[in-house]
Amino acid sequence: MMDNADYNKIFASKTKLLAIMIIKEFSKIPYNEAFSVIRKQIFRSSTSMAANYRAMCRARSKAERFSKLSIVIEETDETLFWLEMLEELNYIQQEILLDLKIKTEEILKVTSSYRKMLKD
User: Fold this and answer.
1) Among 83, 84, 109, 119, which lies 20 to 30 A Cα-Cα from 38?
2) Longest C-alpha distance within the chain, in Å?
3) What is the mean pLDDT of each run of 10 residues along the chain (120 residues)?
């Protein structure tokens, strides 16, 4: 049975890996002014998601954990928004976007459930 430390370690790794995947995939795309703006935003939101999840794992109180987790959820949702924008603009291969969206949605669902549990 997994305890919170195992769960947190797994999801800290998942959020970091997702940010790395986004940076690697989107760094391959040649410069385009419109894409460049979105790329900067998704780099910021995905790395913030990962960094704040890591900070949440080291929270000193339930209130701090809840606060950091709320930031993770907000940044994950923003990352999903930028992936949806890229999907509609056809800047990235659909297979790559689908994989990134699935991973992002999984993190969003799990962290939202975790926050709900902390609230109760």
Assistant:
1) 109
2) 49
3) 76 96 93 91 98 95 94 98 94 92 96 88
Q: Give the H or E element holding residue 45.
A: helix 33-57
Length of the chain: 120
- The architecture (CATH level 2) of 4-119 comes to Up-down Bundle (1.20)
Q: For residues 22 and 16, what is the distance between their CA atoms, to the nearest angstrom?
A: 10
Q: How far is CA 4 from CA 1, 45, 56, 61, 75, in A?
A: 10, 25, 12, 14, 22
What pTM was computed for the model?
Answer: 0.92
DSSP state of 120: -
- Token pair, residue 61, equals 């109180």
Q: Where are the beta strands (DSSP E) in the chain?
A: none
- Name the residue among 78, 58, 80 with its Cα closest to residue 4: 58
